[in-house]
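Structure (tokenized):
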């Protein structure tokens, strides 16, 4: 019986590699991706989401920078624990929709960007939160994310 992997030659092999792409080591994601203001463009999942917030970038930054209030200001966060406030290299953990995540802040640019690398079980991710003022005085908040794991690839609808 033909192997699904090799039945059609290179095409399935390429699909197999993409499906099981584990990405660079976490330290490389931290240093060469997140600290360089980028996500992993070869990751199984890449997402961009953007919202407009009717507040100045300074006010939005205050909320983002107060890691101890994340759980009270956004119900998807719980058990937020950081060794210190936000600073490049600061480590912490939280639960996102109940899923435990360990993170290290990679970029802390007050009023402009908060980025981190995170890991949880089989998942490695980069999250970039980028703030931009808009002409009307509100803030555009953009989330760029990349995840390297086989489960997310299987669970993500096409």
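Design, position by position:
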């Amino acid at each position: 019986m033909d192997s699904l992997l090799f039945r059609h030659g290179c095409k399935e092999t390429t699909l197999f590699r993409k499906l099981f792409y584990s990405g660079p080591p976490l330290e490389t994601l931290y240093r060469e991706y997140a600290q360089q203001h980028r996500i992993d463009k070869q990751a199984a999942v890449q997402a961009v989401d953007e919202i407009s917030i009717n507040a100045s970038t300074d006010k939005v930054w205050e909320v983002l920078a107060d890691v101890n209030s994340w759980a009270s200001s956004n119900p998807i966060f719980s058990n937020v624990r950081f060794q210190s406030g936000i600073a490049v290299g600061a480590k912490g953990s939280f639960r996102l929709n109940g899923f435990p995540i360990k993170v290290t802040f990679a970029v802390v640019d007050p009023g402009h960007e908060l980025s981190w690398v995170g890991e949880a079980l089989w998942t490695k991710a980069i999250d970039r939160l980028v703030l931009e003022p808009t002409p009307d005085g509100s803030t555009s908040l953009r989330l760029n994310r990349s995840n390297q794991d086989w489960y997310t690839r299987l669970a993500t609808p096409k």
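Reviewer-requested clarification: Confidence is low (pLDDT under 50) at residues 1-12, 153-158. Residues 10-155 form a domain with the Alpha-D-Glucose-1,6-Bisphosphate; Chain A, domain 4 fold (CATH 3.30.530.20).
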